From TrEMBL:
InterPro entries: Bact_HTH_transcr_reg, Chorismate_lyase_/UTRA_dom_sf, Tscrpt_reg_HTH_GntR, UTRA, WH-like_DNA-bd_sf, WH_DNA-bd_sf. Keywords: DNA-binding, Transcription, Transcription regulation. It comes from Clostridium paridis. CDD domains: WHTH_GntR. Coiled coil: none annotated. This is GntR family transcriptional regulator. It holds the Pfam family GntR. SMART domains: HTH_GNTR (SM00345), UTRA (SM00866). GO terms for biological process: negative regulation of DNA-templated transcription. Residues 4-72 form the HTH gntR-type domain. It comes from the Bacteria. GO terms for molecular function: DNA binding; DNA-binding transcription factor activity.
Amino acid sequence: MSNTPLYMEIYLDILEKIRNGFYLENSPIASERELCLSYHVSRSTIRQAMSLLYKNGYVYTVQGRGTYVKPHIFEQPLYKFYSFTDELKKNNMDICNSIISCEIIKLDAHLSSILNRPKEDLFHKIVRLRTVENSPLMIESTYLPKNRFFRIEKSLLENGSLYTYLKSNYSLNVDRALETFKPILPKQWQAELLNISTKTPCMLLERFSYEDDELIEYTHSIVRGDKYVFKVNLSN
């Protein structure tokens, strides 16, 4: 006979159902009564299990409505140059890149002004949907000068890091980068790709990366505000 308390067995079982997608993010957990019938235990046992799920950050409650699965929040510290793919892989997270488009474009007036490059310069434009743990997280549009990166292998970007690819194939060495953050609401097509409402707050992230003081990458990303946070440590 197991020495594990009943409430702990139920906690672990519900946690496994959250992790394997039986209970989706922001979806309701079965009611206390339903759980009591399902596990053949008392309400106090169910409450102990649910209390532990709440304490450990797996669920949240809505008064009068019940208990819901808490979305997983991804945290990005901002103290050095970072790669989205590399940072998440450090935490053993499953990352998928869906290539929406990969083409060579001429700079229009808007991009020419942003990048401080002559109009009609040729750039690679790569648009990717970045998905983590089966949850769409951001739409990333990257612009790379064709005179620095002659050819981009689309297939190699689907499950790997863009920076790793550029380092290994073009000896890229980013000296510094400037990032700006701006709160926005997504457009309809962006909301559909991210599987959110057009009323869900997002963050517009713009990155300007430099090599020997020359701009070699411009990326703007639409990042889900309910799934991703940026953390800055300040010291005196």
